């Protein structure tokens, strides 16, 4: 049984999560000691674990538990023609205005009147701004050496379509999954990690026969919605929003966003787009290479359509953190719990000695930690009193605490405390691994 939860206001929630992330080693501002670099973030020790677990969960669900998807890991740098073909060179733009007084920059959608929304100053004429980050390859910085840091991982998959079909003997329908960094020179960068300039995406390009695309599209919307719920997001904090025709990106036949109710409002977590045959045809046109598929059963040759579920790792982490955070009242004290899905939790268990000045207790606790280390991410901690140690583990979402006490020396048993129910079980030392493995699956 969970304890009564204390109500939070939405504005407080943002501050609480930002503060918890810094205090407990989840997320730090990049280059903090130099004053920080806007919209770039470093994942601390627990954040790095959470991120790895999230990626592993996504990869497992899509690559290992299905037999119609392969993984890929493409370079961030690609030939600049890629971005001409994809439309990013000509279309990946925001329209911006600057305030002549306070020098702040706004997207045109943020402006309602003719004046600066912050200081009322005069605004410049709108101008186009391409969001791709540029770089030069080789020793000479000229137009010929210009290239971009990829703004999405998808294009690496499209240009490798033939390679995957040929090397893996794939038959349509099949998909290719990729997780990796993307870069966008975002203008608005508020809301913590939600809109970062360097971020990670988890994308699938699922190739289907034209005519079957609409059915696959709705299957993927359901599939992806259910995935977030499976890993712990409350369904009432998620919604599906279909794009209107005028909102659609230049490549899309249809698009649906899975949105999460962040403290700053409903915002996109993942987009599922029907990209039709836009990308494969474009790459074929610009590269001069034939990119199509031959179905040797029906003897048909065609360019497959693509359904693209495209999610952000950083946005998901933010949503999982908000959704998991709760404050409870326990015996008149506030308890902060990060009720993360056990598969995502950075640590699976903490091993705690009740008395750190008793060498025999400490020794047994170390022995249990060493024993578990190979299989589970566990940590030994004796840096505070037991009450405090429990509170620290609750705050970072550790599902189980294993406590070694004086009685353990006599009966060879330890106490295992459950993060959510705070229920304690007394377990034989030899059964700790089995207990944890079993309960972590639930
Ligand atoms: P938005 O409209 O919020 O800018 P988008 O529609 O441009 O997002 P997509 O191009 O569909 O985003 O990218 C797919 C996913 O990648 C998004 O759903 C989001 O989770 C993630 N993503 C995109 N841009 C960013 C960013 N700047 N920071 C963090 N994640 C991002």
List the helices and strands and how they pair.
Layout (H helix, E strand, L loop, with lengths): L4 E2 L3 H14 L3 E3 L11 E3 L1 H20 L4 E4 L8 H6 L1 H4 L1 E6 L6 E3 L19 E4 L2 E4 L9 E4 L4 H6 L1 H8 L5 E10 L14 E11 L4 H18 L7 E5 L11 E9 L2 E12 L1 H10 L5 E3 L4 E3 L2 E8 H12 E6 L2 E6 L10 E5 L5 H15 L4 E3 L5 H10 L4 E5 L1 H6 L1 E6 L5 E5 L3 H10 L1
Parallel strand pairs: 4-10, 20-21, 20-22
Antiparallel strand pairs: 1-18, 2-3, 5-6, 5-7, 8-9, 10-11, 11-17, 12-13, 13-14, 14-17, 15-16, 18-19, 22-23, 23-24
This protein binds adenosine-5'-triphosphate (ATP).
The site of adenosine-5'-triphosphate has 16 residues, from strand 11, strand 14, strand 17 and helix 9.
Description of the structure:
By secondary structure, the protein is α+β, with helices and mostly antiparallel strands. It contains 13 helices and 24 strands. It has helices at residues 10-23, 45-64, 81-86, 88-91, 154-159, 161-168, 213-230, 278-287, 313-324, 359-373, 386-395, 406-411, 432-441; strands at residues 5-6, 27-29, 41-43, 69-72, 93-98, 105-107, 127-130, 133-136, 146-149, 174-183, 198-208, 238-242, 254-262, 265-276, 293-295, 300-302, 305-312, 325-330, 333-338, 349-353, 378-380, 400-404, 413-418, 424-428. The strands form seven sheets. It has a seven-stranded mixed sheet. Strand 15 and strand 16 form a beta hairpin. The chain is globular. The two termini are 15 Å apart. 34% of the residues are buried.
């Amino acid at each position: 049984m969970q304890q009564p939860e204390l109500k939070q206001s939405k504005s407080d929630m943002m501050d609480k999560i930002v503060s918890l992330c810094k205090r407990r080693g989840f997320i730090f501002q990049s280059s903090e000691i130099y004053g920080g670099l806007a919209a770039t973030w470093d994942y601390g020790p627990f954040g790095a674990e959470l991120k790895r677990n999230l990626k592993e969960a996504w990869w497992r669900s899509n690559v290992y538990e299905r037999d119609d998807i392969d993984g890929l890991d493409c370079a961030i740098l690609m030939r600049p023609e890629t971005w001409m073909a994809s439309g990013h060179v000509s279309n990946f733009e925001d329209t911006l205005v600057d305030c002549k007084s306070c020098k702040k920059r706004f997207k045109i959608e943020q402006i309602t009147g003719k004046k600066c929304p912050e200081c009322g100053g005069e605004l410049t004429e709108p101008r186009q701004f391409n969001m791709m980050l540029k770089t030069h390859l080789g020793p000479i910085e000229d137009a010929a050496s210009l290239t971009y840091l990829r703004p999405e991982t998808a294009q690496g998959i499209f240009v490798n379509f033939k390679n995957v079909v040929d090397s893996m003997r794939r038959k349509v329908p099949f998909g290719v999954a990729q997780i990796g960094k993307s870069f966008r020179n975002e203008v608005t960068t508020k809301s913590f990690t939600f809109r970062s300039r360097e971020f990670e995406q988890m994308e699938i390009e699922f190739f289907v026969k034209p005519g079957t695309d609409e059915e696959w599209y709705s299957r993927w919307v359901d599939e992806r919605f259910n995935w977030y719920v499976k890993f712990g997001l409350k369904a009432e904090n998620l919604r599906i929003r279909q794009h209107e025709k005028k909102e659609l990106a230049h490549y899309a036949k249809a698009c649906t966003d899975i949105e999460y109710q962040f403290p700053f409002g409903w915002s996109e977590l993942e987009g599922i787009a029907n990209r039709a045959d836009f990308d494969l045809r474009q790459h074929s046109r610009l590269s001069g290479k034939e990119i199509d598929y031959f179905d040797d059963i029906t003897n048909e040759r065609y360019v497959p359509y693509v359904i693209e579920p495209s999610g952000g790792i950083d946005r998901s982490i933010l949503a999982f953190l908000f959704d998991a955070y709760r404050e409870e009242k326990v015996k008149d004290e506030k308890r902060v719990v990060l009720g993360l899905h056990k598969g995502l939790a950075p640590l699976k268990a903490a091993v705690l000695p009740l008395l750190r000045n008793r060498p025999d207790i400490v020794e047994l606790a170390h022995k249990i930690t060493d024993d578990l280390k190979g299989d589970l991410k566990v940590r030994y901690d004796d840096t505070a009193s037991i009450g405090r140690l429990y509170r620290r583990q609750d705050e970072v979402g550790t599902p189980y605490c294993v406590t070694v006490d004086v009685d353990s020396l006599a009966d060879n048993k330890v106490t295992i405390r459950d993060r959510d129910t705070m229920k304690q079980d007394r377990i034989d030392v030899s059964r700790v691994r089995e207990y944890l493995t079993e309960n972590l699956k639930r």
